[in-house]
């Protein structure tokens, strides 16, 4: 009889007392007052959370770590003027070349200053004994080292010497009146040294890395919104390539065509430079002069193309790292825009439909309003005997339900047949085991004894023997072989039953392959905030896998209504030949579709 300890009885008694004295509590809602679904507080909380998700989506801020703070642009350098470009009262080309010359500005000299030429420029400074001293980047490095800024290197000084001189040359032409005031003069050795010291203290001593340095080191995403300045445009020689003839010939021959060369840009964040690869849309803008040296461009959704797997320091990355820009995610920035990452704007660089091009690549961000919604449709990829696939459809939801029900019925039938075949096989093997065990009644082996090699051959022979020939097969077996064969069959039955699920699935998939069906919905959209010069362009957007899209918490899958407003990201152009020109007088349409990384955020 099982004995229990007094301590066990004590715990049982204590539980019964607690159960009698503890009153039953009524249900208490888990929601705080005013925060139930539908309450104003809950609605405001959801709106705030959506706003935070949108801000995170557009900024890609999750990759920008606190350990390497990212600045939208360098802070105003203390010096002749701390006013910003926007509030300075000046603008580009305010003064003509003749006017600048009359003000004492050497326009010819300043116009030759580029980031490539600047390292060879030096200032001639007159000393008290009427002699002159040449001061260039070598002397600037010596000055920094003497002042205790020992992290400065020759390459670092030459890079920033170039960028500072290029910037100051432009500032002198923008504000030539300051050059006549010694305390405000920019084109001088003292101003260059002051800005070099500021950059050293901020970057090398302070650890604040600018945009392109973070991107080259792969510590920040190249897709983040930023403003860059074009510092050089390189046009390659015209190249000859072989393109396939239309329609392609079976022999693989093609026609020789002369391809228009695409330029390569050099862009800068004001601190460092990188090469940039462009597409046809940006190449056309370069040919027209819309994009030229000195112009600022707003970029979002760029990609980093590196010849090396590992991250690189920016001064070593010029020949191995390239930014890939697309026309639909790039536009001109204002001349006074700050260079670098743009983290202060909640919705930076939203494209508009009238600015998109069919060959302009990925569209990073759009702000759209739904004008028309088409029903959900389905397409199916059906394999052929040749190993290829053909597309069937589209069809509506009702027809898809019928097709899916018919496929499920075929699959259930195939699965039942496979299960029946396996059951018959196992029953047959179990019958063999019974006969073999009777034949091997006096068979005994040690636990560690291994079966003879020919037992598996005997099993293959037994499994292929027709029922009329089975008696002859069993008569020729000796008790030892019969015992080993019975043991082999038992083990095989157990293994097959354990793997039955996978075997059934494989055979059913072969007889009735899974369906490859994609659902989509087509919507017609317009810009939520069209520009003044925009035409009457609309976009026909194909939203793939619409049934996995939920535009609101607890909403119906794939439900989109007319009038709803969305931030849509990562769309790509489709049907380029069907795109219509943007026209102020008549409606026009373009065609876009979603990608796997497309995101929708509903705005209210």
UniProtKB/TrEMBL annotation:
Per its record, how is this protein called by name?
Answer: BRCA2 OB1 domain-containing protein
Gene3D superfamilies given in the database record: Nucleic acid-binding proteins
Q: Per its UniProt record, what SUPFAM superfamilies does this chain match?
A: BRCA2 helical domain, Nucleic acid-binding proteins
Q: Report biased composition (Basic and acidic residues) as residue ranges.
A: 398-408
* Region of interest: Disordered: 387-408
Xref: Pfam families = BRCA-2_helical (PF09169), BRCA-2_OB1 (PF09103)
InterPro entries per the UniProt record, alphabetical: BRCA2, BRCA2_hlx, BRCA2_hlx_sf, BRCA2_OB_1, NA-bd_OB-fold
Where does the BRCA2 OB1 domain lie? 210-342
UniProt-listed GO biological process terms: double-strand break repair via homologous recombination; regulation of DNA-templated transcription
List, alphabetically, the PANTHER family matched.
BREAST CANCER TYPE 2 SUSCEPTIBILITY PROTEIN, BREAST CANCER TYPE 2 SUSCEPTIBILITY PROTEIN BRCA2
Give residue ranges for domain Breast cancer type 2 susceptibility protein helical: 150-204
């Amino acid at each position: 009889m099982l004995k229990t300890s007094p301590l066990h009885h004590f715990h049982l008694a204590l539980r019964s007392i607690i159960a009698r004295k503890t009153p039953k509590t009524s249900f208490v809602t888990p929601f705080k007052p005013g925060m139930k679904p539908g309450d104003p507080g809950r609605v405001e909380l959801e709106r705030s959370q959506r706003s935070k998700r949108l801000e995170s989506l557009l900024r890609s801020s999750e990759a920008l770590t606190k350990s390497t703070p990212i600045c939208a642009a360098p802070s105003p350098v203390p010096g002749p003027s701390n006013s910003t470009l926007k509030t300075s009262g000046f603008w580009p080309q305010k003064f003509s070349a003749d006017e600048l010359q009359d003000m004492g500005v050497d326009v010819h000299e300043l116009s030759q200053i580029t980031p490539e030429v600047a390292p060879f420029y030096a200032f001639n400074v007159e000393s008290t004994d009427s002699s002159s001293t040449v001061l260039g980047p070598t002397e600037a490095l010596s000055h920094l080292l003497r002042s205790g800024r020992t992290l400065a290197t020759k390459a670092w000084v030459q890079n920033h010497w170039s960028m500072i001189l290029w910037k100051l040359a432009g500032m002198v032409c923008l504000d030539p009146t300051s050059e006549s005031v010694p305390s405000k003069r920019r084109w001088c050795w003292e101003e260059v040294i002051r800005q070099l010291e500021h950059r050293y203290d901020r970057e090398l001593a302070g650890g604040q890395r600018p945009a392109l340095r973070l991107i080259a080191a792969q510590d920040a995403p190249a897709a983040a919104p930023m403003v860059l300045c074009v510092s050089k445009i390189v046009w390659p020689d015209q190249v000859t390539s072989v393109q396939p003839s239309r329609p392609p010939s079976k022999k693989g021959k093609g026609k020789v065509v002369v391809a228009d060369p695409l330029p390569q840009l050099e862009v800068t964040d004001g601190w460092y430079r990188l090469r940039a690869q462009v597409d046809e849309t940006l190449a056309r803008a370069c040919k027209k002069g819309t994009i030229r040296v000195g112009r600022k461009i707003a970029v979002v959704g760029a990609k980093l193309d590196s010849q090396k797997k590992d991250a690189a320091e920016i001064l070593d990355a010029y020949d191995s790292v390239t930014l890939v820009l697309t026309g639909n995610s790039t536009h001109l920035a204002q001349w006074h825009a700050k260079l670098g990452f743009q983290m202060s704007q909640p919705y930076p660089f939203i494209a508009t439909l009238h600015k998109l091009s069919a060959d302009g690549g990925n569209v990073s961000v759009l702000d759209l309003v739904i004008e028309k919604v088409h029903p959900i449709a389905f397409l199916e990829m059906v394999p052929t005997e040749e190993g290829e696939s053909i597309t069937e459809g589209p069809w509506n939801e009702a027809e898809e339900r019928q097709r899916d029900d018919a496929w499920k019925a075929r699959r259930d039938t195939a699965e039942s047949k496979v299960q029946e075949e396996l059951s018959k096989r196992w029953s047959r093997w179990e019958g063999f085991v019974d006969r073999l065990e009777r034949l091997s009644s006096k068979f005994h082996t040690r636990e560690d004894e291994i079966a003879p090699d020919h037992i598996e051959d005997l099993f293959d022979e037994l499994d292929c023997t027709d029922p009329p020939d089975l008696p002859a097969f069993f008569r020729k077996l000796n008790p030892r072989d019969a015992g080993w064969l019975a043991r082999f069959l038992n083990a095989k039955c157990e293994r097959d039953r354990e793997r039955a699920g996978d075997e059934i699935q494989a055979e059913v998939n072969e007889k009735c392959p899974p369906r490859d069906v994609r659902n989509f919905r087509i919507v017609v959209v317009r810009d939520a905030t069209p520009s003044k010069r925009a035409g009457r362009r609309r976009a026909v957007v194909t939203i793939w896998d619409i049934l996995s899209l939920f535009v609101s918490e607890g909403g119906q899958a794939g439900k989109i209504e007319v009038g709803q407003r969305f931030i849509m990201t990562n769309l790509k152009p489709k049907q380029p030949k069907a795109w219509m020109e943007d026209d102020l007088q008549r409606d026009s349409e373009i065609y876009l579709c979603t990608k796997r990384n497309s995101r929708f955020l509903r705005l209210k």
